[in-house]
Amino acid sequence: MILLRALVRLLGFLLLIALALVGLGFALAALLGDQLGVQLEGSAVSRWLERLEGNDSQVLEAVIGGGMVLLGLLLLIGALAPRRERRAVLDQGEHGTLDARRRPLAQMFTALAERTRGVTRAKAKLRLGRRARHGRLVLRAERPRTMESTAVREAVRSEVGELAAAFGLKTRVQAPLGRRGRRVQ
Amino acid sequence: MPVSSPAEVPASASVRLRLAAIARAAALATRGVVGLDAGRAGLRMTASEGLRVDGVVCAALSDGRYQLSVHLVAEVVALRPLADAVRARVERDVAIAGLADRLGPVDVAVEDIQVRTEARP
User: Fold this and answer.
1) Contacts of A7-16 spanning 24+ positions with Cβ under 8 A
2) Which residues of A26-50 are buried (b: 16+ CB within 10 A; e: fewer)?
3) Domain ranges within chain B, ordered by starting residue
4) What are the distances in angstroms from CA A43 to CA A25, A38, A62?
5) Could you tell me which residues are beta bridge partners of residue A99?
6) Most buried by CB count within 10 Å: which residue of A61, A80, B84, B103?
7) Cα separation of A157 and A155, whole Å?
8) Does the beta carbon of A106 lie under 8 angstroms from any beta carbon of chain B?
9) What pLDDT shows up at residue A131?
10) Would you call A91 and B83 a contact, using CB atoms and an 8 Å cutoff?
11) What confidence tens digit (pLDDT) does each residue in A14-27 have?
């Protein structure tokens, strides 16, 4: 499914460019065909169309057509199939699983960071890995001028560290200066 | 029809539905649980005989037991103790109902977090 999605993206991009160029070519041929000396009659396209209308065997065209239909179906599946949501797994055992969705977990980390003394505003970005108990947490905790960056980083790290470790998240804390007017906890 | 309490489920109802109703009530009675979540499409539920238990998925296992998945909205609390508390309560209430031998693993899924916003002075 991952390969199919990548294929959809790549082919979609290339096909759009090809379609745009073909469209541009036809538009130019239609508008300025005489001036540009473009004539479809007697061209390869014209001969091919004539061959299609004839009674000869058209195996090659049938194979190409069938292939295009198959490719179209694969592209549709790749584009329309629902994505499986990645979840952060905390516990997995005989008694059951404990997991959480990414968004509420990020909310929780944000709330924990905002509770930390010296933080005016916090924002957590959480990326979950493909395997269970793998992911990356980036916490941006804004601070006032009166607080040292290192102190705030350490405080936030100790506040969220236990939960982040339980989910197997690698944590990075940033503590930039907050905007003026934001109040400290 | 949505079920909000195990008392609304008749004794003749399926074990699956009874377990789901008990689990829902047990989870809601646990401290730190704000509510249950059936999802945007309402598919996280157990339905049988015209009744529906939202937020709990009860699935039959090959050994005759049932696996429960409780999809909850939690407060900002430690999640592991919360899950343990939910499981303990579910197991206790299921045992009281006489269905202990039918209960399999209890999955706890945190679907949302409700953050209390405290007014700053």
Assistant:
1) A7/A74, A7/A75, A7/A78, A8/A75, A8/A78, A8/A79, A11/A71, A11/A75, A12/A75, A12/A79
2) eeeeeeeeeeeeeeeeeeeeeeeee
3) 6-114
4) 15, 10, 22
5) A89, B109
6) B103
7) 5
8) no
9) 73
10) yes
11) 888 898 888 888 77
Query: Measured between CA atoms, how close is B54 to chain A, in angstroms?
Result: 18
Which of A80, A108, A131 finishes a domain? A80
The length of chain A in residues reads 185
Measured from the Cβ of residue B1, the count of other Cβ atoms closer than 10 Å reads 8
Q: Quick check: B118 pLDDT over 60?
A: no
What are the pLDDT digits (tens) for B26-40? 999 999 999 999 888
Q: Is the pTM of this model over 0.80?
A: no
- Choose the final residue of a domain: A31, A56, A80: A80
* B 56-95: CB under 8 A from A: 67-68, 74, 76, 78-80, 83, 87
Query: A125 is in which domain, residue-wise?
Result: 87-174
Residue A105: left if φ>0, alpha if ψ -120 to 50, beta else—which one?
A: alpha
